[in-house]
Each structure stands twice: as C-alpha cells, then as structure tokens.
Design a protein that fits this description.
The protein is of the alpha/beta class and 468 residues long. It has a domain of 219 residues: Rossmann fold. Helices cover 47% and strands 15% of the residues. The strands form 4 sheets. The protein has a 6-stranded mixed sheet with strand order 3-4-14-9-10-13, with helices on both faces. Helix 11 links the parallel strand 9 and strand 10. Helix 10 crosses helix 11 and helix 16 crosses helix 18. The radius of gyration is 21 Å and the shape is globular. The two termini are 36 Å apart. Bound molecules: pyridoxal-5'-phosphate. The site of pyridoxal-5'-phosphate has 16 residues, from helix 11.
C-alpha cells in the first residue's frame, strides 16, 4: 500500500488523504510516495481502448492506497471527466503535425489550460472528503493568470469550500481576469489587490503564517505542490503512450515548463513503467532549469516578462521532488541543499548526479522571437494555431526529433491559443478562433472587490465574508 513521506523527512509516513489535505509537509518539504506503483504490461494492454476516466482509475487507484473506496473513486472520476466539463470527447486529443510528431491538446477543460485536468478532479475529491469529515475549509491563493481561474472553476460547485483568489489589479490580461471574475457562485471571491503579483503572494504567505487565522478559517491551498495534482497529470501520459505505442513502443514528450509539475508527472509515469524515452524540459527566456541541466548550477536570477507568462518563474517548486529521487532519497542531504538554496540563491550538484539528471531530462530554452517563429512555422505547415507556451515545447521538440527521429514525439499543448490573442496576432497575423464559452466571459458581469495592499484589510475581508 502506497504511503507518503516528505522530501525533507522521512519522518512518519502519511496516507493519501492526509497528504491531499495538507498540501505541503510541515517541515517545508513536498510529499512523495514511498514507492512507485507499477503499471505492468498486461495492465497497459488492458488500457488500450478504455475511456479517459477508466484509464485514470487504473493510474490513480494504487496511489490512493485504499483510502477511498473503488466505487467512490470511479464515481468521482466519471463526474470529473465528462462532456459537461470538457469540450472534447477524447479529453486529450492527439493531432498529428509531422510524420512522427503529435500535439496533445490539454486545453479542453473549463478554463482552457492543462491545469483543469488535475484541478477539476482535486476540487471534487476535496469536497467529498470534507463532506465525509463534516468539515469546511477556506482556500486562499494568489494568481498572475491561469492558476486562479482553474482553481475557481474547480471549487465553484463545492459545498464545503470557500475560495478567495488574489490577483494584482490591472496586471493580468483581461481574459484571464474575466475568467475569474465572471464566475458567479456564493463561495467564490475575487480580490483585486492594489499591488503586484509578488504583493499578492506575500499576503497569502503571511496569512498561512498566521496560526490563529489559519485555525480560525481552516485555511488550505490547491497549489501546484499538492501531490494530487501531479498524480492526476500522470493520466494523460498514460493515455498518449497507450494510443501511440500500444504501451510497448517508447514515446517522448516535450513539455513547456514552469513549476516543473507537468513534466514531473511524466517522470512519475516513467517510474511507474510506462515506456517513455525522452522527457524534454522546455523553458522560455527564464531558463533557470535549462541552465541547470547545462552547467549543474541552479542559480536564481530575476524574472523577466515573456510571451509565455505561465512559465515566467524564478524557482520551480516541484523540482525538489525530482532532486529527492536523484539523490537516492537522501532526505538529510536534500534538506541542507534546500536550506542553502534559500539563503545563497544557488546550489551546485556533483558531475555524477548531473550525468544521471541529463539522462532523465533534456532541456532547451526558447526566446520570444523563436516562440513567434515557431507559432508561424506550425501554422504555415499544418494550419494549426498554437499558443506561445505550446510553441516553446514545439521548438524544443525539433532538436529531439533531429537526434532521435524514430521515437514518436508528443508535444503537450498546455493552453488554448485564444487565451493569448495578442501573441497569436503578432505571430500569424490573424485572431485565434474563440471557443464559445471563452467569448461569453467578455460580456458577463464581473464580481470582485478592490482592496489595498494591506494584510489586515485582506484578513478581515476573508474573516467577514466566508460562509462560516
Ligand atoms: C502552468 C502552465 C505551465 C507550467 O506548468 P508547470 O507544471 O508549472 O511546469 C505552462 N504552460 C501553461 C499554459 C500553464 O498554464
């Protein structure tokens, strides 16, 4: 039965539900399964021809370790992955774009980014567990774009969750703001903070550090370090492997990367026995990960804005999970590495570990110019419009296809191009086609409260407003 430990642990083991409810471990680490459950060849054979929620059941079941009855898990999965919430019956359709390359569209959920695939499931699972325990929680988060809307859509129908999302006033794109503020539900609260994204994040951090407030409102988070999000993302890697390689022939993936959550799910899929050859970590001009794989130095530099804002990161929080495995689960060693990273803003790994890391991942960076060029090249060659994040994976995949033309390449399309109309217009000179639901947010009334960049005001607002 799979149990979980903190990357900085090991300490006592925890079960799946506790890990889901906690998000981050109390020691500041991230939770990892004590072992990787195996998807053996006969199970992969069996998966061919199964539906998305059925494959999800086989992938997720061993991680849940009996904490949720099978029939409940099946029920939650079939309520998550339905045509009511996703606008393509294949959920993650594959589009062939080159003789041996496919785009996997992960933008058919309610907010048109790949984050829906995990968050839609996490919201329902959370609500089920809270109902069982007779508890209510308050989720608070900060967003600069995609995460906030995906989290709101995941919680809007949850009976036991209030969600407050802070965004920097006038500093998100209009579409991204409207995707959040036009959701009309009694448990959804948007705060436009008079400040920057860093100010929003700073306030959220302080709220979590305030133990009295935490207990009072039963504060929680659904951020990308929650294990359930990684786990739910493993599913589409399995779906692609079964579709293209029948679960026998190896497949490679190119993944536009920010917090390392998506590509880490690919790594987890490989650890479970899925035949995955290369995992390509694609970064934009904020290339801390690419520099790391090139030099062995993880070194923080300032964040620069780019055409792919969801990848504009300083530190990839989920990378710690991979480091833990790379260091053979030397929890003590990892703890001191992470502590020195916090103070020195840098660490360096020995060459023998880097040699292994370079086998596990290949990494490439992509400038804004190359992003636009790739969007145009894809459109010219195939007629398919891709968003700037997808283009960065596409760009990286070209290098891999040159080196290894025989292995099928899957490029993850992490956002719908209509979410980034300005970049699309610049790249190919036309407006992306708006899905009907996205077009609708343009006319709906917005609901938000503007608050000053003031911890007390935000804290009081949450206390007063939540549905106790
Ligand atoms: C969140 C996001 C990413 C980055 O994914 P990580 O799991 O953080 O690496 C890339 N592209 C888009 C469109 C996103 O929304």
């Amino acid at each position: 039965m799979v149990q979980y430990v903190s990357t900085r642990g090991p300490g006592p083991t925890h079960n799946f539900l506790d890990v889901m409810m906690a998000g981050m471990a109390p020691d500041g680490g991230l939770y990892l399964p004590t072992e990787w459950p195996a998807l053996n060849p006969s199970l992969l054979d069996h998966m061919a021809g199964l539906s998305y929620p059925e494959i999800a059941f086989h992938v997720i079941r061993p991680f849940v370790g009996g904490t949720i009855p099978d029939d409940v898990l099946i029920q939650i999965l079939s309520e998550t992955y339905t045509p009511d919430h996703f606008d393509h019956t294949a959920y993650t359709p594959l589009q062939q774009v080159e003789p041996n390359a496919w785009v996997m569209e992960l933008f058919h959920g309610p907010t048109y980014s790949f984050k829906d695939y995990a968050l839609q499931f996490l919201g329902r699972l959370f609500d089920y567990v809270l109902e069982q325990r007779g508890q209510r929680i308050t989720i608070v988060g900060a967003t600069s774009g995609d995460t906030g809307s995906a989290a709101i859509e995941a919680c809007r129908n949850c009976r036991n969750i209030d969600i407050f999302i802070l965004h920097p006033k006038d500093r998100t794109s209009e579409i991204q703001r409207r995707q959040m503020t036009t959701v009309s539900a009694p448990n959804v609260f948007n705060i436009a903070l008079e400040g920057t994204f860093d100010d929003c994040q700073g306030i959220v951090k302080e709220l979590f550090a305030d133990q009295a407030f935490r207990d009072d409102v039963r504060l929680s988070a659904v951020n990308s370090i929650n294990w359930v999000r990684i786990m739910a993302q493993i599913v589409y890697y399995a779906v692609a492997c079964v579709a293209l390689g029948a679960g026998r022939r190896a497949v490679s993936f190119a993944v536009p990367t920010g917090n390392f959550g998506n590509v880490y799910a690919g790594y987890a899929a490989r650890r479970m026995g899925l035949p995955i050859r290369n995992l390509v970590v694609a970064s934009n001009r904020n290339d801390i990960l690419t520099r790391f794989f090139e030099t062995g130095d993880m070194k923080i530099e300032g964040v620069m804005p780019s055409l792919s804002p969801s990848m504009d990161i300083q530190v990839s929080s989920n990378f710690e999970r991979y480091l833990c495995d790379l260091m053979n689960r030397d929890h003590q060693g990892l703890s001191s590495l992470m502590n020195s990273f916090k103070t020195q803003k840098a660490f360096r790994l020995p060459e023998e570990l880097m040699n292994r890391a370079r086998q596990d991942f290949h990494s490439y960076r992509c400038s804004d110019e190359d992003t636009l060029a790739m969007m145009k090249r894809c459109h010219d060659a195939t007629g398919i419009v891709i968003d700037p994040h997808t283009a960065i994976g596409f760009h990286a995949a070209q290098f891999e296809l040159e080196k290894d033309p025989a292995t099928p390449m899957v490029m993850l399309a992490c956002a719908h191009p209509a979410k980034f109309p300005d970049a699309v217009r610049r790249a190919i000179g036309i407006d992306p086609v708006m899905p009907e639901k996205l077009a609708r947010v343009k006319t709906r009334a917005e609901q938000l409260i503007v608050l000053p960049n003031d911890l007390d005001k935000v804290r009081n607002y949450i206390r007063r407003t939540r549905n106790a």
